[in-house]
Task: structure prediction
Amino acid sequence: MTKLRKFTHMIVKNLIDMAEIARKNAYAPYSSFSVGAAIRASSGEVYTGCNVENSAYPEGTCAEAGAIAAMVVAGGQKIHEITVIADSPYPVAPCGGCRQKISEFSSPDTLITLATTSGIKEVTTIKDLLPGAFDRSFMALK
Result:
């Protein structure tokens, strides 16, 4: 998470605001750790998601996965940038599974803004979060 990229403050602020709105709708009765995500697709459309926990703990859904699903349902297939926000002392990176999901729908240089509700931000890329990502180039696709 050390490589910072240039970004337009207004665009990032908008995604942070939208991710925060989604975070407030999170269903986190077990961990009390609410997370929100906002994706700007290559079309310019924005899709949001929040974490949804379940008493069968591994059956929950991450905010990033929810936002990706919303994008795909709407016909989008390419993440231009993504923002993740949580109420934590420092920015929280997506889990390993979500890093793979983000990688599936993005390019290596896709910007990922990690934010806290107190205003701390880090900007990184999926390439930096998931070096050596598994992708379709490893499979013999026909």
Summary: The chain is about 25% helix and 20% strand. The domain at 9-138 is CATH 3.40.140.10 (Cytidine Deaminase; domain 2). The helical segments are 9-23, 63-73, 96-104, 126-129. The longest strand covers residues 79-86.
